[in-house]
Amino acid sequence: MGVVRQEGDWRLEKIEDGLYEVTYKETAEATITTPEYEPGAFGDQFAVSAPSYEADSDVEARSLFDEIAAQDTISVMERFGTTADGPALDDPSGPSDGAHGNGITNLPPGGLALVLVLVGGGVLYASAFAIGSAAFYLGSALVLGGVGIVAWASALYKSRGASEAVRFLTAKRDPDRSDSSATVAGEDSERTLPASRSLKEELYFNRANRNCEWCDIRVDQPEVHHIKPRREGGPNDPSNIIVLCAGCHAKADRGAISRTKLRARVRKLTESAA
Question: What global pTM score does this model have?
Answer without folding.
Answer: 0.37
